[in-house]
Amino acid sequence: MNNNYIRQAVTDTIIKCHISTFPIDCFNILNRFDYKVCTYSELQSRNLELYKMCVSYSEDAFRIGNMHIIAYNDKKPPKRIRFSLMHELGHHILGHKNDTPENEEEANYFASNILAPRIAMYYAKLKTVADVSELFEISSSAAYYAAQDFSEWCNEVCQSGMHDYDRSLYAHFYNSVYNGFVYSIKKCEFCGATVYNEKMPYCKGACALHDEPKRTPMFDVLSADDRKVLLRLENNWLYDF
Prior knowledge:
The longest helix is centred in the middle third of the chain and has 21 residues, at 140-160. The radius of gyration is 19 Å and the shape is globular. It folds into two domains: 1-115, Arc Repressor Mutant, subunit A, CATH 1.10.10.2910; 117-241, no CATH class. The chain is built from eleven helices and seven strands. A three-stranded mixed sheet has the order 1-3-2, with helices on both faces. The chain has a two-stranded antiparallel sheet with strand order 4-5. The protein is mainly alpha-helical.
């Protein structure tokens, strides 16, 4: 299956699970698909045979489809765990039956896109790979992979226009109060007001403690002409979804 098919599957999952902010709650998403999630440590103490089977297949995570269980290695870093969980969900959503290199690549691509949808990366105006890692709570290597694919996504949009799945995502994340694409929703820690698309959990103005530090620009993936094309498309997306 091609990347556009997987991106459409990601979009359908995001909408079905009512995902409204990033980073996503991986455990909640798996619960919506009726998966029981447990750690390798829990599995080792409860069912040693099943535990040995899981670790023999993967040191990160394993999906036991007939039992609707996803087990993961709780000794791995949290960001890696998040990717592993969405990788296993990718196998489920994409209907994989066999353990093949192609299926593994497809599950990786699914995980990357549901954790950090490219259109969300675009509207977040992220400056560094570290910013991608921080906002979406993914590892540096996963953030770098997403940044590379983001470049491809930008080129596709510039050349062919907006895909239907991106239109659906734009409509899903468009917020009439904010009057734009919302990729982050927080509550101000001081006054309780809803904070949209801000790095820190407090609203600007009286609650702001300091200005956000300046950041060094990162991946300049677009030419000046391509930037103009995307800006024109962006203006259209606001009124045409």
